C-alpha cells in the first residue's frame, strides 16, 4: 500500500510550502518602498538647490570673466604705452625725408622687438608722409607671400612732394640688411585721414583706440597714438594685436556650447570665443544688453533655451565695452540632470539591493559554496587566471577559497615557467624569470641560482634576488654528492634557505637553486617542502640545460662556418685569409654606420639578431668557392689548367727546331751549298726562338693584347709539325669522353703548331647552372650570361685572351661561386631569424648601376649592409698581400681605384665616403696590412665624390 502526504502538506520541488511568502521578501519590499519615497523627496529638493547654485555660479563667473578680460587688455596696452612714451622724444619725429628716417631704423627695430604683441611702430607727419616698421615674424606668411626669404622687417613709407606721392616698401633681414626695395605707385596711404591721427591731434595725452581691423594686415588690434614732443603735427603710433582675446574667451567658456563676446555700445562684436560665422547672435546680444548687468535671465533663440548675463569692462571706460555671455540651458543644467539621473539610478539600485537582502540572509551559507563551485569549474576548463578566492564570514568557506586560489596561482606560475622556457633567449634573463616564478609558487620573496663551472670547479652566482650571498663557492667537484654540497652551502649561507641541487638528464651537476624561506609556515623546512622544492626546481635545470644546448649548437655552427671559411682560404694560396678578413672589415664598417649621425646613416641601426645574421653571412660570403676548380682560381697564366700547357707547345717548338736541323743536314747530303743551307737553317731557328718567346710573353697575360698581337698568334699557329704517336692512348675518362665520336686520323698526321681542337671543349651536360633569367629552375633571380661550354681549353682561344689570364668560360666559373654560395646557403635548413643569410652573403659582387652579378641588382634594390659587404670585399682584395699573382696595393692606391669604381657605378658612394671619413680604412690597415702599404692618404681628394 502506498502512502502519500495530504494535500495541505505537499511542498514545491524547492521545499517551500505553496502560498507562503518569504519574510526576506516582505522586509525587503517594505524597506524598498520607504526608501523610494524618501529618495523622491530628497531628489526633488536637491534638483532645485543645484539649479539655483548653477545660476548663482554663472553670475559670479561673469564678474570674474570681466576682471580677467580687463587684466588681459591692461597687459596688452601697458608695455606699448611705455614704449610710445620714449618714442615721442625720438629724432624720428622730426625727420624730413626717408633717408633721415632710415637713420632711426635700428632704435625703432629694438623697440619693436621688446614685445611679442607689438605689431608695428609708425609715424604720421603733417604733410601726409608716413613711416611704418612692421615685424613680419608675427604676421601671417600668406599675407606677405611675396616677401624675400629671410625677411624679418617690412618698412612701409609714403612721401609726398606737392601732388606727387611715392609709396615704397623695404624688406630687411634680422640684422637690418636691406633685402629688396619695392616701389608701389598705388600705395597712397594718408595717415591724416586715420582716426588715430585725428584723435591724437585733438588731445595732448596718449590716445588708446577701441579694437578695430588694421589697414594692411586685416588683424584685430588696438592703436596707441601720441603727438611728438615739440612737433604737434607729427603723431607716433603703435599697433597692438589683440587676436588672442578670442582664444582667451574660448578658454573661459563654462560649457562647450557657451558663447562669449565683447561688444561696444552699439552692439558690434569686437572679440568672440567663436569664429565670426558662429559668434554670439545679434538677438541674444540685444536682449543681454537690455537687462541689468550680472543678472541671469532666460532667453529663447533658435529653438533652444539660453541663460544670458552681461558685465561691464573697466579697462577702456571711454569705449563702454561690455562682455556678454550666453549659456545653453541644457548645458548649464547638464550636471544637475546627470546628478538627478545618478541619484535615481542609485535609488533604484538600493531598492533592488534591499529587495534581495532577504534572499541573501537566507542563502548566506550556500552562496560562497556556489561561487566556489563556479570558479572551480573554470579551473577545470583551464582558466587558471580566474581568481578563486571568495570573501565570506564563514570560516570553512573562506579557508577553502584561499586554498583553491593558491592552487590556481601555483598552476598559473607553472604555466608561466613553461612559457618562459619556450620563449626565453638569454640564459640569465630566462633564469631570472624562472626564479621569480618558483619564488612566487613558494610564496616567498628572495632567492638565487648558482651555475656550476666544470673547468673552474666552482659555483658562480648567476641570478640573485635580494639575497646576501657569496659570488663564488670554490673547490666544488663534479662528483660531489647532494648532501655534501648542501652541507657546504648551509655553512656559507645564513638564514632559513632551502636548497635544490640542479642536475641534467645525465645526472651531471649544473647548478643550485636557493630560496629563502621567511614567510608563512614554510619556515619549518619540512621534508615535504624540500621534496616539493626539488620537484619544481627541475624547471630551472631544464632551462639551464636547454640554453646550454642551444649555445653549444650555436658555437658548433660558428665553428663549422669558420672551418668552411678557413678551408676555402687554405684551398688556394691566392686567397688565403680573405674569408677571415672581409667579415672583420665589414663588421667594422657596420659599427661606423651605426654610430654615424650624418645622412644617410643617421637612422641606420641593427638589432642583435640582424647583427648575428650579418656576421654569419660575412663569414660565408665566398663559401661557393669550394665548388670552383682550383686550377681556375689559381690560374696565373693563360695556358694553365692543372699544369702550364706552354711546356707542350715548347716541346713542339723543340720538334720543329730539330726538324730544321735535320732538314739542314739532309740538304747538305743532297749537295746544297753549305752557306745557303746554313742561312735557311739559321733564319728558321731564329724565327722559332722569337715566336716562342712571343707566345711565352703572351701567356703571362700581364699586358693587353692588340689586334696585331692576336693576328701574329694565329699566324704562328698555322705552322705544322708531324705527330707519329697516337693521342688516344693513356687517356683519362674525361679525355676519352671528349674525343668520343671523333675518328682518329692515320699516323703520321700533320698538325698545326697551335690549335682549338674539339676535344678541348667540355660540355655542360646535365649540370647546367640555372643562371638564365628565363630558366624555370632559377628561383633565385639570377641573371647571368651562360657560356656555350663549361670549359674551353683551346690553345688559340686562351692565348688570344685580350686582358688577364681568364677566358670567358673560366671567368664565368669564377663568378659562379656567388651562384653556388646562394644555392648552398639556401639549401641549409636555416631558422627564420637567419633567413636573409643567403642574400646578404651573395650580393657583394652586385653593382650600383645594375651591371654586377649574379642578379644584376641596382643600388636601390640593395640594403646598406649589402653595399657595405661590396666595399669590404673590394678593399680586402686590393690590399691583400698573400696572392702570388699580384702585389698588395697601398692605401692611397686602393682608395684611388675604389673612388674610380664609385664614379663608374660599381661601389656605393655614401658607404665609400663613410669608409674613408670614419677612418675605418686606417684601423683595418693597422691590424691587417704590411707597413710598406700604409702610406699617407689625402682624404680631401674623396670629399666631393
From TrEMBL:
One of its GO terms (cellular component) is membrane. InterPro entries: GAF-like_dom_sf (IPR029016), HAMP_dom (IPR003660), HD/PDEase_dom (IPR003607), HD_GYP_dom (IPR037522), Sensor-like_sf (IPR029151). GO terms for biological process: signal transduction. Keywords: Membrane, Transmembrane, Transmembrane helix. The chain crosses the membrane at residues 20-44. Residues 363-416 form the HAMP domain. It comes from the Bacteria. CDD domains: HDc, PDC1_HK_sensor. Gene3D superfamilies: 3.30.450.40, 6.10.340.10, Hypothetical protein af1432, PAS domain. SUPFAM superfamilies: GAF domain-like, HD-domain/PDEase-like, Sensory domain-like. One of its GO terms (molecular function) is phosphoric diester hydrolase activity. Residues 718-930 form the HD-GYP domain. This is HAMP domain-containing protein.
Amino acid at each position: 500500500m502506498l502512502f502519500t502526504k495530504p494535500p495541505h502538506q505537499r511542498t514545491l520541488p524547492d521545499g517551500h510550502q505553496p502560498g507562503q511568502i518569504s519574510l526576506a521578501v516582505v522586509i525587503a519590499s517594505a524597506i524598498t518602498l520607504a526608501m523610494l519615497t524618501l529618495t523622491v523627496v530628497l531628489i526633488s529638493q536637491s534638483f532645485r538647490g543645484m539649479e539655483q547654485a548653477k545660476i548663482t555660479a554663472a553670475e559670479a563667473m561673469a564678474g570674474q570673466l570681466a576682471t580677467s578680460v580687463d587684466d588681459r587688455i591692461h597687459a596688452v596696452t601697458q608695455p606699448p604705452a611705455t614704449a610710445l612714451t620714449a618714442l615721442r622724444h625720438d629724432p624720428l619725429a622730426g625727420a624730413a625725408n626717408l633717408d633721415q628716417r632710415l637713420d632711426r631704423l635700428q632704435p625703432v627695430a629694438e623697440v619693436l622687438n621688446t614685445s611679442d604683441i607689438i605689431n608695428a611702430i609708425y609715424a604720421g607727419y603733417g604733410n601726409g608722409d608716413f613711416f611704418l616698421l612692421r615685424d613680419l615674424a608675427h604676421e601671417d606668411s600668406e599675407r606677405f607671400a611675396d616677401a624675400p626669404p629671410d625677411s624679418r622687417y617690412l618698412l612701409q613709407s609714403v612721401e609726398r612732394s606737392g601732388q606727387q606721392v611715392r609709396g615704397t616698401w623695404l624688406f630687411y633681414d634680422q640684422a637690418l640688411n636691406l633685402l629688396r626695395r619695392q616701389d608701389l605707385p598705388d600705395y597712397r596711404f594718408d595717415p591724416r585721414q586715420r582716426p588715430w591721427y585725428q584723435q591724437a591731434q585733438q588731445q595732448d595725452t596718449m590716445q588708446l583706440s577701441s579694437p578695430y581691423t588694421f589697414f594692411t594686415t586685416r588683424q584685430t588690434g588696438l592703436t596707441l597714438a601720441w603727438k611728438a614732443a615739440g612737433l604737434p603735427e607729427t603723431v607716433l603710433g603703435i599697433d597692438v594685436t589683440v587676436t588672442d582675446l578670442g582664444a582667451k574667451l574660448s578658454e573661459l567658456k563654462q560649457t562647450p556650447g557657451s558663447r562669449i563676446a565683447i561688444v561696444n555700445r552699439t552692439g558690434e562684436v569686437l572679440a568672440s570665443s567663436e569664429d565670426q560665422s558662429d559668434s554670439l547672435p545679434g538677438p541674444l546680444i540685444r536682449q543681454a544688453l537690455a537687462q541689468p548687468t550680472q543678472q541671469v535671465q532666460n532667453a529663447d533663440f533658435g529653438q533652444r533655451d539660453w541663460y544670458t548675463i552681461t558685465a561691464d569692462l573697466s579697462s577702456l571706460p571711454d569705449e563702454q565695452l561690455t562682455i556678454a555671455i550666453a549659456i545653453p540651458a541644457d548645458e548649464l543644467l547638464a550636471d544637475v540632470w546627470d546628478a538627478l539621473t545618478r541619484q535615481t539610478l542609485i535609488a533604484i539600485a538600493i531598492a533592488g539591493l534591499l529587495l534581495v537582502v532577504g534572499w541573501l540572509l537566507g542563502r548566506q551559507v550556500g552562496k560562497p559554496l556556489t561561487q566556489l563551485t563556479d570558479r572551480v569549474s573554470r579551473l577545470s576548463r583551464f582558466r587558471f587566471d580566474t581568481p578563486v578566492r571568495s570573501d565570506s564570514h564563514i570560516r570553512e568557506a573562506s579557508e577553502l577559497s584561499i586554498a583553491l586560489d593558491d592552487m590556481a596561482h601555483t598552476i598559473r606560475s607553472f604555466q608561466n615557467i613553461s612559457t618562459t622556457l619556450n620563449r626565453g633567449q638569454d640564459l640569465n634573463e630566462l633564469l631570472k624569470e624562472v626564479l621569480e616564478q618558483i619564488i612566487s609558487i613558494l610564496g616567498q620573496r628572495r632567492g638565487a641560482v648558482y651555475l656550476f663551472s666544470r673547468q673552474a670547479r666552482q659555483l658562480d652566482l648567476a641570478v640573485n634576488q635580494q639575497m646576501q650571498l657569496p659570488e663564488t663557492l670554490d673547490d666544488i667537484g663534479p662528483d660531489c654528492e647532494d648532501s655534501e654540497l648542501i652541507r657546504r652551502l648551509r655553512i656559507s649561507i645564513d638564514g632559513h634557505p632551502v636548497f635544490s641541487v640542479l642536475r641534467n638528464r645525465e645526472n651531471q651537476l649544473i647548478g643550485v637553486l636557493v630560496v629563502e624561506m621567511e614567510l608563512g609556515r614554510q619556515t619549518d623546512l619540512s621534508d615535504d617542502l624540500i621534496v616539493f622544492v626539488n620537484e619544481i626546481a627541475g624547471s630551472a635545470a631544464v632551462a639551464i640545460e636547454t640554453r646550454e644546448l642551444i649555445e653549444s649548437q650555436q658555437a658548433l655552427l660558428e665553428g663549422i662556418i669558420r672551418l668552411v671559411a678557413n678551408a676555402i682560404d687554405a684551398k688556394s694560396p691566392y686567397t688565403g685569409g680573405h674569408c677571415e678578413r672581409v667579415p672583420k672589415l665589414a663588421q667594422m664598417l657596420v659599427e661606423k654606420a651605426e654610430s654615424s649621425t650624418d645622412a644617410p646613416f643617421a637612422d641606420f641601426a641593427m638589432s642583435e639578431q640582424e647583427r648575428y645574421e650579418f656576421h654569419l653571412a660575412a663569414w660565408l660570403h665566398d663559401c661557393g668557392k669550394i665548388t670552383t676548380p682550383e686550377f681556375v682560381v689559381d690560374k696565373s697564366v693563360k695556358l694553365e689548367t692543372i699544369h702550364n700547357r706552354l711546356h707542350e707547345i715548347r716541346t713542339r717548338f723543340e720538334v720543329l727546331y730539330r726538324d730544321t736541323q735535320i732538314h739542314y743536314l739532309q740538304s747538305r747530303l743532297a749537295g746544297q751549298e753549305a752557306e745557303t743551307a746554313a742561312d735557311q737553317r739559321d733564319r728558321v731557328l731564329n724565327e722559332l726562338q722569337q715566336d716562342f718567346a712571343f707566345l711565352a710573353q703572351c701567356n703571362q697575360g700581364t699586358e693587353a693584347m692588340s689586334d696585331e698581337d692576336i693576328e701574329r698568334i694565329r699566324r704562328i699557329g698555322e705552322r705544322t709539325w708531324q705527330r707519329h704517336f697516337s693521342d688516344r692512348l693513356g687517356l683519362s675518362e674525361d679525355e676519352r669522353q671528349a674525343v668520343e665520336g671523333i675518328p682518329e686520323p692515320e699516323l703520321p698526321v700533320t698538325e698545326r703548331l697551335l690549335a682549338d681542337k674539339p676535344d678541348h671543349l667540355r660540355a655542360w651536360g646535365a649540370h647546367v647552372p640555372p643562371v638564365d633569367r628565363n630558366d624555370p629552375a632559377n628561383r633565385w633571380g639570377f641573371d647571368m650570361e651562360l657560356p656555350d661550354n663549361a670549359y674551353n681549353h683551346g690553345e688559340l682561344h686562351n692565348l688570344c685572351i685580350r686582358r688577364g689570364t681568364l677566358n670567358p668560360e673560366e671567368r664565368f666559373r669564377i663568378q659562379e661561386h656567388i651562384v653556388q654560395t646562394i644555392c648552398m646557403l639556401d639549401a641549409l635548413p636555416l631558422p627564420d631569424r637567419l633567413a636573409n643569410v643567403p642574400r646578404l652573403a651573395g650580393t657583394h659582387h652586385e653593382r650600383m648601376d645594375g651591371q654586377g652579378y649574379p642578379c644584376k641588382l641596382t643600388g636601390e634594390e640593395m640594403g646598406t649592409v649589402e653595399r657595405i659587404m661590396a666595399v669590404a670585399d673590394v678593399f680586402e682584395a686590393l690590399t691583400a698581400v698573400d696572392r702570388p699573382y699580384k702585389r698588395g696595393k697601398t692605401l692611397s692606391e686602393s682608395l684611388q681605384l675604389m673612388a674610380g669604381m664609385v664614379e663608374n657605378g660599381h661601389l656605393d658612394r655614401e658607404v665609400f665616403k663613410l669608409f674613408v671619413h670614419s677612418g675605418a680604412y686606417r684601423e683595418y690597415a693597422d691590424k691587417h696590412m704590411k707597413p710598406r702599404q700604409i702610406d699617407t692618404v689625402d682624404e680631401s681628394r674623396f670629399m666631393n665624390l
